[in-house]
Design brief:
Shape of chain C: globular
Helix content of chain C: over 70%
Largest sheet of chain C: none
Oligomer: heterotrimer
CATH architecture of chain C: Up-down Bundle
Number of strands of chain B: 15
Number of helices of chain C: 16
Structural class of chain C: mainly alpha
Radius of gyration of chain B: 30 Å
Largest sheet of chain B: 9 strands, mixed
Order of helices and strands of chain C: HHHHHHHHHHHHHHHH
CATH superfamily of chain C: Amino acid/polyamine transporter I
Distance between the termini of chain C: 35 Å
Structural class of chain B: alpha/beta
Radius of gyration of chain C: 20 Å
Chains: A alpha+beta (521), B alpha/beta (426), C mainly alpha (367)
CATH topology of chain C: Amino acid/polyamine transporter I
Strand content of chain B: 25-35%
Strand content of chain C: under 5%
Chain lengths: 521, 426, 367
């Protein structure tokens, strides 16, 4: 295939229209969606052909082009001289007066022509000219803007990105109306030729970061970019970690706030998921809800989320460790209850937990894939019945079912799905460690996990900021969500070039003068 | 690494060492994982399934002087029976095991020879010590308690008085409770503490007191109420049905039991060392000097000071000055006179209360003197405040305590409240 | 060769953690060979003074040679051969301290929590963590110290606050009854442990602003001595000094005697988990200092190839102690810990400072 591509890259248009059209048809294999409309223009009946891909074009615009041409160059037209009917003059007139596409000058290279053709542009070929004029007639069938299913919020805008890059960038542009929002585009993927755009705020995002992002993207050599996940894997700092090193989102408000904090957004055509570089661990634990609800509510939810995240990793391991090694920590009555429930269960506690975890994982994955109404029903019913039946059959004890269920629920609290998967992997390791050495095994796992997280960098920025390099002023946005009027500064590392969000930030106070006259009447 | 050169040159704060180190890091993590896997296969040495353990809820130590063996008796809760039937029915929800050995530790380890599960002492809230052990000497038992990691230092120790053996005590069927250890713990914590009838010291505090110079131990006393023939269960009377009485204390000299403090003598001790919250005192009414007035003392503080004076014969006189401050309220009154307004009548209430407290302490002190044990810690007071003197009299302190020590008590007692009525019922 | 950087604050946390965690667990000033008993807190005050002097001396010397480690500037001050010989002393201190701390931690866990686990397993596991940490680099260790400092501080504060209501002031009397001699001999042990500050010699080149090294070190000293002082107070007050001096791990025993609530019992494991985090940092840092010093000594480009052999050596050293009695005699008695730790430190410092001052005088003379 690459041979064909190289061959195509070398082809150019000739002066003969018929030859050009045959060449194009051959190269495309007489593709059924390639539409060629030839017509004659001018008194000399110069042949002109219009090519487009059906389904991608705006019919009206094409008709307009054709009618414009025929009207303009018809012998009865008044603003033409009689001798302006040579091909090059028609070409000149067309290009300068009728259709002027600033972005793309007329080209003769077939591969560039094909690039634009497949985006929905119309190619205008004139007999006798070896260049084709590219007219912008894109109209794509697109999904309507709706809230992303995987990232629902209670309060917040209900639109999300879709699969078309121009629409996505327009969403961003309309929301951030500063001229400093720079959007550069790249083309990645030798076969798919996917358009990728980098968006950042010039003067706020660190120059080194932007250069790094751009360089890494430019260095990618791959044949297809199906989804931004492919890009993510190609440009991330290290692959040897289950933790995601780039945040991704479908929501426009998340994209907006990330860009405004000094990060770089990478938008990919063909997928609604936008990547953000750099990222930190606790960005994954934040949800847009925190920012729109009131400060105590937002802080409370966020603290709950962090607690749930920690529980999701450590709870089964702590349960095993306590029951097997440190029974003195459990109150006596509870311990007697657990022991009583375990009479007759053949497996050791560790095996029980692992068994239930595996079953739970399978239920969860199955529930994701099943369509519509069946999916959630199977998960709920399956979990209930399986748990109940397993207890009755003396396969597991009730305490284990509760622990595993609580862990499962806690793991869904984090709004980021990729972090979910990472916690699952780590949870299994912790279970094994907890079953081996008790709470000291869990501590070993905790320390190992911390070293690993501390050594991670996302595009050079430490992953555990603001905890690992202790940046106290950034803590306003980590455990709690400080009120908006208190957040005077941007995050220290990324927003360092322009740290001050706003100079005058004070909370509202009640008005000092109340007009009492209202009460007297 | 997809971009080695790029990351070398352009990543912020990175340098060559870190990149190389990352490769080594991966190696190390792999080694670590292998090690952990070996660990799992080799053994989780300390892992015990909870159903393989017998959770001891009460521990007892007995001593047989004829064989010179210590015996450890444990009461183990039976989880299945507890949960299944709620403790009702014929099957008791506990079991009692015992084993003998030359030291308490050996006896404890030999328990496993008699029970199907390994005993686990961390949930034992009670330590019952038989009178034999106390008379022989508590030293070995206390040493075992301090060394063993499973022992819960917040447990309550007590001495079992009388003929009942510890086995009988543990097999006692107490009303309202599933097993006697639970009942006794609840009784000790809820009811008895702070009433100054039972020294509410945890094991830790007892151990601490035992080590202080010039102070002797005092451990609470427990007895099973007198039994009739019908109360004995089983053919040989191994089990009893009855209630347990917790009052009084056993006084020790060094680590040997020398005598008993009964309820009022313990109260005298309690004024000084107990955190009193609900002590009861009876006084005769000031109006007629005949009827009883029941007072509840809800707060008491004490302070002691050692004083050494030299009398005419150049002998040293040792004296302890005690200051007690007590607050109480009238809870019950049989006297027809009402104590309502401020005046002499109410003041005399206070004076009588002070007098009663003073007498109480004095009785207690004399009892301790007769036994020759300084449970009040007067010697410790000398040690703390008059160290040089103490160094000289340390060896003779017992005689000084028994014969020469004078006690000067000052009590400031106030009756502050009188309940919900002002005039008594006539 | 670019040098990895840690922030001053991270150095502060590192010094604080290494100096606080281990001594707080065995409380040598009370349970050690000196006989201070109820005056142990006065020993702590004296020891604070000694530690301040030590830390200021080491840090001060380090700030005079901002980008050089102690091995390098001792060679510069004393000449090649003498400098290398003198710098062998800190290297032995690093490895010995690392091995001893790990052994002590393993003893705590074995005695109080996991009696059947062999010591080699616990030491091996801590060593694995330390190895991973060191190979990741000092930056990662600095960030880990940043992260853990919060947790360790919380655990320590909880463990100090909970017994506070139950302290008896009488346990502190009679004050200074036995005279000053046991107080001073007990104070020597924490000062000997102050030899740990030699790690500043290896860590200061990595710090962002080495000029502020002295203030960083002094702040760390004061913070860590405050915690150790408070823990001494708590132990003396809650369990009398007689119990405290007899307990193997006094603070642990104090924590065991607290009854927090009816259903939360035996919380001493939280304290030990906090110590575990601190021990990891401590062992890693000293191992890092030792390995880094060795690499400077041999003038290798990177210290990473030396890590595995050093780890094995340290594990062997820590298993060399036969029993807890040897360990206690080694670590907690003034007769042994002073010559082992304090004298080499004082010797090194005296020699290096002497050489520095002589060079300054000479250069001023010749001007």
């Amino acid at each position: 295939m690459s041979q064909r591509t190289e061959h195509i890259d070398r082809q150019v248009l000739s002066n003969n229209l018929q030859q050009n059209l045959e060449q194009i048809e051959n190269l495309l294999g007489n593709s059924y969606d390639l539409v060629i409309r030839s017509f004659a223009v001018g008194g000399n009946n110069l042949q002109v052909a219009v090519l487009f891909i059906s389904g991608l074009e705006n019919n009206e615009a094409v008709e307009n082009i054709i009618s414009d041409l025929t009207i303009k160059f018809s012998p009865t037209s008044t603003d033409l001289k009689a001798d302006s009917t040579s091909p090059s003059q028609i070409f000149q007139e067309t290009q300068q007066k009728i259709i002027r596409n600033q972005e793309l000058e007329p080209v003769d290279n077939l591969s560039l022509l094909f690039d634009q053709l497949f985006l929905g542009d119309t190619i205008l070929l004139i007999d006798g000219i070896n260049r084709g004029i590219i007219c912008n007639t894109k109209q794509w069938e697109l999904r309507s803007l709706e809230e992303p299913e995987a990232e629902r919020v209670i309060r917040g805008p209900r639109d999300g990105f879709i699969e078309a890059l121009p629409v996505n960038t327009s969403l961003l542009r309309r929301r951030i109306r500063t001229p400093n929002l720079w959007i550069e585009s790249l083309e990645i993927g030798t076969v798919t030729k996917t358009k990728v755009a980098i968006a950042y705020i010039k003067g706020l995002a660190q120059e080194g970061l932007v250069n790094e992002v751009r360089t890494r993207l430019q260095e990618i050599e791959i044949d297809n970019v199906i989804e931004s996940g492919v890009l993510e894997e190609m440009i991330e700092d290290t692959f040897f970690t289950p933790f995601p090193l780039m945040h991704r989102s479908e929501r426009t408000d998340i994209a907006m706030s990330e860009i405004l904090e000094g990060r770089v957004a990478i938008l990919t055509d063909g997928t609604p998921f936008v990547l953000f570089a750099p990222t930190r661990l606790h960005d994954m634990l934040q949800g847009p809800d925190d920012y729109y609800e009131k400060f105590p509510v937002g802080s409370f939810i966020r603290l709950g989320r962090m607690l749930a995240f920690v529980l999701a990793i450590f709870l089964p391991a702590i349960y095993i460790a306590t029951v097997n090694f440190h029974t003195e920590l459990i109150p006596s009555t509870l311990l007697l209850g657990i022991t009583a429930a375990r009479q007759g269960v053949p497996f050791p506690v560790a095996m029980e937990v692992i068994l239930m975890e595996i079953v739970f994982e399978m239920l969860r994955e199955a529930g994701l894939r099943l369509p519509g109404m069946i999916g959630p029903a199977i998960s709920i019913v399956g979990a209930l019945i399986l748990g109940e039946a397993a207890i009755q059959a003396n396969l597991v004890s009730p305490a284990v079912v509760i622990v595993v269920a609580a862990t499962g629920i806690a793991s869904f609290v984090a709004p980021s799905f990729e972090l979910n998967i990472a916690t699952r992997i780590i949870r299994f390791c912790m279970i094994i460690l907890g079953a081996t050495l008790g709470l000291f095994g869990v501590q070993f796992g905790f320390i190992l996990l911390t070293i690993h997280l501390c050594s991670l960098r996302s595009f050079g920025y430490p992953y555990l900021a603001p905890f690992a390099p202790l940046i106290i002023e950034d803590w306003k946005d980590s455990f709690i969500r400080a009120p908006w009027w208190w957040q005077k500064k941007r995050p220290h590392l990324e927003g360092g070039r322009d740290p001050v969000r706003t100079k005058r930030n004070k909370a509202q106070t009640p008005p000092s003068v109340l007009d009492d006259s209202d009460y007297d009447s | 690494m997809k971009y080695p050169l790029l990351n070398f040159l352009s990543t912020k704060k990175a340098n060559r060492e870190i990149i190389v180190g990352v490769h080594k890091l991966k190696l190390m993590i792999a080694v670590g994982i292998i090690f952990c896997a070996l660990l799992c296969c080799g053994g989780c040495w300390d892992r015990d399934e909870p159903e393989d353990q017998a959770f001891v809820v009460a521990t007892g130590i007995d001593y047989h002087p004829d064989q010179e063996l210590y015996e450890i008796i444990v009461q183990v809760a039976d989880p299945g029976a507890l949960v299944a039937e709620g403790g009702s029915g014929e099957t008791p929800s506990f079991a009692v095991f015992s084993a003998k050995g030359h030291t308490p530790f050996q006896a404890a380890r030999d328990l496993a020879l008699h029970s199907t599960r390994e005993p686990f002492f961390a949930h034992s809230e009670l330590f019952a010590i038989s009178e034999n052990t106390a008379r022989h000497g508590l030293g070995p038992a206390l040493d075992f308690f301090r060394r063993e990691r499973q022992i819960r230092l917040t447990a309550v120790p007590f001495i079992l008085e009388g003929d009942t053996s510890i086995t009988q005590l543990f097999r006692t069927d107490i009303p309202l409770e599933n097993y006697s250890a639970e009942g006794m713990t609840r009784q000790a914590e809820q009811g008895i503490m702070r009433r100054a009838v039972f020294p509410s010291r945890s094991l830790a505090d007892t151990l601490m007191c035992s080590n202080l110079p010039g102070r002797d131990m005092l451990i609470g006393r427990v007895a099973v109420e007198k039994q009739t023939k019908e109360d004995k269960i089983g053919e040989e009377g191994e089990a009893l049905r009855g209630t347990i009485k917790m009052e009084g204390a056993a006084a020790f000299k060094e680590d040997e039991l020398v005598g008993w403090f009964d309820q009022s003598q313990i109260k005298g001790w309690g004024w000084i060392h107990e955190k009193i919250e609900a002590a009861t005192v009876n006084i005769k009414c000031p109006a007629h000097d005949k009827h009883n007035i029941g007072l509840e003392i809800y707060e008491a503080q004490s302070d002691m000071k050692p004083v050494i004076t030299i009398d005419e014969n150049a002998n040293r006189q040792y004296r302890i000055d005690l200051f007690i401050q007590a607050d109480g309220r009238i809870q019950d009154q049989l006297c027809p006179t009402g104590y309502v307004w401020e005046g002499d009548l109410v003041n005399s209430l206070n004076q009588r209360l002070a007098q009663v407290i003073k007498n109480n302490i004095k009785d207690s002190f004399e009892h301790a003197q007769s036994l020759g044990t300084d449970v009040f810690g007067f010697g410790n007071c000398f040690y703390r405040e008059k160290y040089r003197e103490w160094k000289r009299i340390e060896a003779d302190w017992v005689e000084i305590f028994q014969n020469d020590l004078r006690l000067n008590i000052e009590v400031d007692a106030t009756v502050r409240r009188a309940g919900l009525i002002q005039e008594p019922w006539r | 060769m670019t040098v990895e950087k840690i922030a001053n604050r991270q150095l502060l946390f590192i010094l604080f953690i290494t100096r606080t965690v281990m001594p707080m667990s065995m409380l040598p000033v009370l349970a050690g060979g000196g006989n201070a008993m109820q005056d142990a807190w006065i020993s702590m005050l004296i020891a604070t003074g000694g530690n301040i002097i030590l830390a200021a001396a080491i840090a001060g010397l380090g700030t005079k040679f901002p980008r050089l480690s102690i091995v390098e500037y001792s060679q510069r001050l004393l000449g090649g051969v003498a400098g290398r010989l003198v710098s062998l002393l800190p290297i032995t201190v690093y490895f010995t301290v690392s091995a001893m701390e790990m052994r002590m931690y393993a003893e705590i866990i074995n005695t109080a929590f996991l009696p059947r686990t062999p010591l080699i397993a616990i030491i091996g596991i801590t060593m694995i963590l330390a190895t991973v940490g060191i190979i990741s680099g000092i930056e990662v260790l600095g960030r880990t110290a940043d992260f853990f400092a919060l947790w360790i501080a919380i655990f320590l504060i909880i463990s100090l606050l909970l017994p506070l209501p139950e302290i008896c002031i009488e346990n502190f009397q009679p004050v200074l009854a036995r005279g000053l001699e046991p107080v001073i001999s007990s104070a020597l042990i924490p000062i000997a442990i102050g030899a740990q500050y030699l790690s500043i010699g290896m860590l200061l080149p990595h710090v962002m602003t080495p000029a502020r090294g002295v203030s960083t070190a002094l702040t760390a000293v004061i913070m860590s001595m405050t915690f150790t002082f408070l823990s001494t107070l708590v132990v003396i007050g809650k369990m009398s000094p007689f119990e405290g001096s007899q307990a193997t791990f006094p603070l642990l025993t104090v924590f065991r005697t607290i009854e927090t609530s009816e259903f939360l019992q035996r919380l001493e494991i939280l304290l030990v988990l906090g110590w575990g985090l601190g021990i990891f940092i401590s062992a890693s840092i000293f191992l890092y200092c030792g390995v880094s010093a060795l690499s400077h000594w041999f003038k290798t480009e990177s210290y990473r190839p030396l890590v595995l052999p050093a780890v094995v050596i340290v594990v062997i050293i820590s298993m060399l102690f036969e029993d807890i009695f040897q360990l206690r005699t080694f670590a907690l008695t003034p007769e042994i810990s002073v010559p082992l730790f304090l004298l080499p430190t004082i010797f090194v410092l005296a020699v290096l400072w002497g050489a520095y001052l002589i060079r300054k005088l000479l250069s001023r003379w010749s001007d």
